[in-house]
Amino acid sequence: MTHHEVVVVGAGFAGLAATMALRDAGIDDVLVVERAASLGGTWRDNTYPGVACDIPSHLYGFAAHPNPDWSGVYANGAEIRAYLERVAADERIAPRLNTPLTSASWDDDRWRIDLGGRHPETVTADALVLACGRLTEPRIPSVPGLARFPGPVFHSSRWRHDVDLQGTRIAVVGTGASAVQLVPELSRTAHVTLFQRTPAWIVPRGARAYSEAERMRFRERPDELAALRAELYDEGEERFASRSGDAAASALAREVALAHLYDQLDDPALRELLTPDYAFGCKRVLLSDDFYPAIASGAVTLEASALATVEGSTVVSADGARHEVDAIVFATGFASTQQPYAELVTGERGTLAEHWAGGMTSFASTVVSGFPNLFVLDGPNASLGHNSSVLMIEEQAAYAARTLAGRFEDDRDGVLRVAPEAESAYTAEIDRAAASTPWITGGCRNWYVDARSGRLTLLWPGTVGAFRERLARADGSEFEPSRRFTREREVA
């Protein structure tokens, strides 16, 4: 049975960040496993027409790997995937592909990890890093009659490139971040019936291509590129106020969103249907310059209610409207608050899913009581609604690396057990900070809040700077004293 110092599960942004941070800390025996046939995470899975990032490209990357050659202010999905592949090659990170985690269990002083795929294997590791992503398992609602629909049915994150949709009638279910990118692209060559349960607050995107002269300048003047990244970071941090409920900032952002709607749509009835009735920031704020024009083009029929039933090739809305379609695309998001990997991981007192039965909890959004030497990246309260998630991932990776590198200090035996009271205190901090925000009080349903407990479990309710400072204050006291050391003192 092969043993490794650390096993990292996942080879997207989080997996690469963890591996780089561990190596920088002097931990070189790292096995990276990836269930898919290639690396890239979200940007490997999502290949729908129009897929792109809504964070500026020069902020959506690793600090140590700036890319002067992004094609525009916002990178498309293929570019981001290529960037991750290039970083992995430069760092000589070679994940073991087609190797899913099938189970992991804590066995006294190490992790026992079962790996599937073509060559199933059991390995052990001193530490386990879950870098599995938070938006990996598509969520498709249960719709009566769907199984009998005669045409193609698929989720936006599992795009069927073998299906020719030109000239067809397509039902798109959902109006979230994927849909506002997808619908304008589909509407260029097809007719779209768009099912909207809840409208989104949408602000201008301001997308544009970088000129060759700009890209050349970024290549030749890295200081200018670094200054741009710092500027984009500051702009992102400033957005936190409007997303988190600051009255003045939220009112101003709401005015911007409404002006954008009114500038791009003349039809009063459509304006009304597309105006949210909940607080700005309660749901994810979207960026688009072409969604409203697509709605106004005549190539999109807006059905302002949920998809209720499917009768043969007819889709029926909750309001009773009937539409004949040739294909159905679900842009309905992912399993977010209940992570699929949690059922596979067993600690000292049960599975991670059982520990999170009332919603995800942790200390430092990274380590979990009852799961020694386990680090979860991009997990509990580690997402953002205002800035680049890569910034959070890098902070978590650095915390995990320095914690593991120092695990033999202060009379520890290499086993790091989070004190339950440390996790409880951190959870209470999160709850207090979230209590008055629109994510909790804004009058909407969002994927940030766990329906089982009503707690904010996905978002960090603060700025990136505040997260960085919070993790910097973690001094090791979040872990219980070594059991071996404690026993030796009792004997003495």
TrEMBL record:
One of its GO terms (molecular function) is oxidoreductase activity. It holds the Pfam family Pyr_redox_3. Signal peptide: none annotated. It is an enzyme of class 1 (oxidoreductase). The keyword DNA damage does not apply. Coiled coil: none annotated. The keyword Oxidoreductase applies. Keywords: Oxidoreductase. Its EC number is 1.14.13.-. This is NAD(P)/FAD-dependent oxidoreductase. It comes from Microbacterium candidum.
